[in-house]
């Protein structure tokens, strides 16, 4: 949604809707909405507030992604792969994306909506953590500054300091991921992120870790069960991950199977592994 500075000029070319704080314009047969700089302060229903809150959060993330030229190449490749996977000749005639922004916005908003829709149904979640450890599951837009800080600290401690992997950790996938962590006194001690692949109903696990001092206590197993549970809640039919070869037996305990040959990421041998969800 574009932001207009000259409201009077824009009103001449569109219909002003003060209640929703937007200007509606029709161009080439399609309706476009433009945000008014001065926010509307009048009353709003709960549905309107929820819609504005969701749109604002998602649009903020999309703006961050679109501002990074290097990431546009990756997102375009994902969008092209998605479009190629569509069978547009059979109903229900899935949507083909024409711009990268449309695709990114769709991925982010769909992931957030699924998570919000399932939050109320936590009855099947296991509760076997020690009393001083808490489980946190949230999309990026719900993370506070301190949440992000602690997550990045844990990732740096394991992947950079311990494993000596030098790579751009902040890869913008965090924006569209669900972040799952175990914490003690607010500090992240185990972590993984879950995000959608370009393929339909396929999600990927990444950045999975347990701090060195916390290993051998079963936290990794608990975290993996939570990640699988969350993927099922978000409608995934398959989960994929890139496992360091020494960790392959760990993932096999949860039903993951190797796919393909060994390859190298950051000079470390990996195997692609997948698990089909029932």
Question: Summary?
Answer:
It is built from 7 helices and 11 strands.
Q: pLDDT average, as an integer?
A: 79
Tally of individual helices: 7
CATH superfamily of the domain at 133-276: Gcn5-related N-acetyltransferase (GNAT)
Report the helical percentage: 25-40%
Please write the CATH class name of the domain at 133-276: Alpha Beta
Return the structural class: alpha+beta
The residue ranges in which pLDDT falls below 50 over 5 or more consecutive positions are: 1-12, 120-127
Q: Which word captures the global form? A: globular
What is CATH's topology name of the domain at 133-276? Aminopeptidase
Strand arrangement, major sheet: 5-6-7-8-9-11-10
Order of helices and strands: EHEEEHHHEHEEEHEHEE
Amino- and carboxy-terminal Cα gap: 39 Å
Strand content: 25-35%
According to DSSP, the number of beta strands is 11
Largest sheet: 7 strands, mixed
> Measured on Cα atoms, how large is the radius of gyration?
21 Å
Description of the molecule:
The protein has 278 residues and is α+β, with helices and mostly antiparallel strands. Among the domains are: 1-43, no CATH class; 133-276, Gcn5-related N-acetyltransferase (GNAT) (Aminopeptidase, 3-Layer(aba) Sandwich), CATH 3.40.630. The protein has helices at residues 7-12, 46-66, 69-85, 100-118, 145-162, 219-233, 248-252, and strands at residues 2-4, 15-17, 22-27, 30-36, 133-139, 178-184, 187-196, 202-210, 238-244, 257-265, 268-276. A hairpin with a 4-residue loop joins strand 2 (15-17) and strand 3 (22-27). Helix 2 packs across helix 4 (100-118). It is globular, with a radius of gyration of 21 Å. Residues 1-12 and 120-127 have low confidence and may be disordered.
């Amino acid at each position: 949604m574009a932001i207009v500075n000259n409201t009077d000029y824009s009103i001449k070319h569109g219909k002003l809707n003060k209640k929703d704080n937007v200007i509606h314009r029709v161009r080439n047969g399609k309706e476009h909405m433009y945000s008014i700089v001065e926010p509307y302060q009048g009353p709003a229903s709960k549905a309107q507030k929820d819609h504005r809150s969701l749109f604002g959060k998602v649009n903020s993330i999309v703006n961050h992604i679109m501002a990074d030229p290097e990431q546009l190449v990756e997102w375009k490749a994902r969008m092209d792969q998605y479009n190629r996977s569509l069978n547009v000749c059979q109903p229900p005639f899935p949507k083909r994306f024409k711009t990268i922004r449309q695709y990114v916005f769709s991925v982010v908003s769909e992931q957030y909506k699924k998570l919000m829709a399932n939050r109320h149904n936590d009855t099947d979640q296991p509760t076997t953590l020690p009393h001083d450890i808490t489980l946190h599951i949230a999309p990026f837009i719900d993370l506070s500054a301190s949440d992000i800080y602690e997550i990045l600290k844990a990732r740096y401690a394991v992947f950079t300091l311990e494993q000596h992997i030098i790579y751009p950790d902040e890869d913008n996938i965090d924006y569209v991921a669900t972040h799952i962590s175990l914490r003690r006194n607010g500090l992240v001690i185990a972590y993984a992120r879950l995000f959608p692949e370009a393929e339909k109903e396929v999600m990927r696990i990444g950045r999975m870790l347990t701090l060195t001092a916390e290993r051998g206590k079963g936290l990794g197993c608990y975290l993996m069960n939570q990640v699988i549970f969350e993927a099922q809640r978000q409608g995934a039919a398959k989960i994929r991950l890139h496992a360091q070869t020494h960790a392959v037996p760990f993932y096999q305990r949860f039903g993951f199977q190797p796919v393909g040959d060994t390859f190298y990421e950051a000079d470390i041998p990996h195997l692609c592994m997948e698990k089909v969800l029932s």
